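@channel sequence for tomorrow's demo:
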Amino acid sequence: MNTIINIGRSFGSGGGFVGHAIGQKLGIPFYDNNLICKAAEENGYSKSLFAGEEKRSLFNMSSFFVSGRPGYLEGNYATDNMLFEVQSSVIKELARQGSAIFIGRCADYILRESACLNVFVCAPLEYRIHRLMETEGLSEEEASRLIRKKDRTRETYYNYYTFGAWGHADNYHLCIDSSVLGIEGTADAIIDFGRKAGKIL
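structure tokens (generated this afternoon):
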């Protein structure tokens, strides 16, 4: 059985860093948006297919002809639902090939029929603001505005495609506040939980 961990996260909580730390500790491939793009390219799709973090958008017709592979088109544009289908097929194939950690991209929904550990990493707004101020050099106002924008985008994206509720505890096996234990401690706690739950080998 492959170990599959899907991590949703509030913006600024460090969920991506937590996922990367888990991957290093377990020796499991880690897939964020950039690496899913790369996997899509290796399967014949254009990198621009996934351009834009979790945004539903339309792409120019020319973006979908790579190595002779036709894209999914409606008139001169790919539909949002067709883009999601391509993303889903890439994630499913990566999960079929072996153990993996997926960050965002509705992976928990896409792999809902598989044995996965679904986690949501969160943190208080004040913590996330100060973290972005330190890591990105933003002002408090800029950090607050960016967090609200990104969270709204992620919530809209997730809810649209899954008919679920982004960030709601009943959608996940574990919700964890990264501000309590930090990145490494949060990663360790998720691994410990996953092993006790029989979700991590």
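heads up for whoever presents: The CA atoms of residues 64 and 70 lie 6 Å apart.
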